[in-house]
UniProtKB/TrEMBL annotation:
InterPro entries assigned to the protein according to its UniProt record, in alphabetical order: GH, Glyco_hydro_5, Glyco_hydro_5_CS, Glycosyl_hydrolase_5
Protein species of origin: Hyunsoonleella rubra
Keyword Hydrolase: yes
Enzyme superclass (EC): hydrolase
Record has Hydrolase as a keyword: yes
Superkingdom as given in the UniProt entry: Bacteria
Protein name: Glycoside hydrolase family 5 protein
Length: 364
């Protein structure tokens, strides 16, 4: 298990924010259902490849330091939700305490407050922790111990925030570089992922305060929509504040695979409708709300087809009561990996037409 420690991390006691969460968040919990929360989240945007970079700083993967002006621009464009992926392992001390550095907690909270200053919903998670969150029986006890300590620290820091802050226990929990990594996992893997969610949620609830009733997103194995994955998901404790988190880059050859640059035929639309209906039938129709926490498409000089796909996807999700959160990794070149629609350096909407159709989908 690789634990990288940077010099800033010394064993410190994480601060507890008592009283108001911050000047940007009044700490109100409105005693509303997760379905009501989800209905307000609408369209979202991911701050991808920044705080979740696999390195000691948020600029490690080439994106600039996140500023309030960036988040202001996202909010002003009509996005109601921001997902802030965070990688914690480069800022954690060793066992037995796995203490997260105060400096990193402070920085994460600073970015959360940029969004709360715009009255946005915020999804805060653990991201790119797959080197140690390994879903096997042999690793389970070790991982559960560390997960519990990590989420206790995160939840303690943010426990006085309002219900506009949503925790997401795990990102795409999976066993990396295995044959079943992206096809729903093995029975063992799916079972252990359920156990990991249980430990995370228990840690969050135990911190008390607003976290007793905070809305928490729970993902399938790898956040997959494969039937074997969605059928295996267990909501810990049948918690009525749980929201299912799914990532549906559908269809993969067009969105991420880079092998198909066209989209928009009747059969394309029927297939996407079938994907959305499958999710709705499994969860929403059974009283469990869903957030599509990641989706997007790479830029292969096929803007017209990307716009057509984005509009249809967002409208299909909105019609079924599911917010969707565009995965923007800050890359704005021409390749299947260039998923950015917003230039964080000059605060310009490089693909404003995509931003336009997906925000309008949730205004109807």
């Amino acid at each position: 298990m690789n634990i990288t420690i940077v010099p800033e991390q010394e064993e410190t006691t994480p601060e507890t924010n008592d009283g108001f969460a911050s000047e940007f968040d009044d700490g109100e919990m409105r005693n509303i259902s997760s379905f009501e929360i989800v209905s307000e989240m609408k369209i979202g945007w991911n701050l991808g490849n920044s705080l979740d970079a696999e390195g000691p700083t948020e600029t490690h993967w080439g994106n600039p330091v996140t500023t309030k002006a960036m988040i202001d621009a996202i909010a002003n464009r009509g996005f109601k939700t921001i997902r802030i992926p965070v990688t914690w392992r480069f800022h954690q001390g060793p066992s037995p305490n796995y203490t997260v550095s105060k400096a990193w907690l402070d920085r994460v909270e600073e970015v959360v407050n940029y969004a709360r200053a715009n009255n946005m919903y915020v999804i805060l998670n653990t991201h790119h922790e797959d080197t140690w969150i390994i879903p096997t029986y042999t690793k389970a006890n070790e991982v559960k111990n560390r997960l519990s300590k990590l989420w206790t620290q995160i939840a303690t820091r943010f426990r006085n925030y309002s219900d506009y802050l949503i925790f997401e226990t795990l990102n795409e929990p999976r066993y990396e570089n295995t044959p079943q990594e992206w096809t729903g996992g093995t029975a063992e893997g799916r079972d252990v992922v359920n156990q990991y969610h249980q430990v995370c949620l228990d840690a969050i609830r135990t911190t008390g305060g607003n976290n007793m009733s905070r809305h928490v997103m729970i993902s399938t194995y790898a956040a997959s929509t494969f039937p074997v994955a969605i059928n295996a998901l267990k909501i810990p404790n049948n918690d009525d504040k749980a929201i299912v988190s799914l990532h549906s880059y559908f269809p993969f050859p067009f969105t991420l695979g880079g092998t198909d640059t066209t989209w928009g035929t009747n059969s394309d639309k029927q297939a996407l409708d079938a994907e959305m209906d499958k999710i709705k039938a499994k969860f929403i129709d059974n009283g469990i709300p869903v957030v599509l926490g990641e989706w997007s498409s790479g830029n292969l000089n096929n803007l017209s087809d990307r716009i057509t796909h984005a509009a249809y996807y967002a409208n299909a999700a909105a019609q079924r009561g599911m917010p969707c959160v565009w995965w923007d990794n800050g890359k704005i070149g021409v390749s299947k990996d260039d998923l950015g629609i917003f230039n964080r350096r000059n605060l310009a909407w490089v693909f404003d037409d995509i931003a336009d159709v997906i925000t309008k989908a949730y205004q109807q």
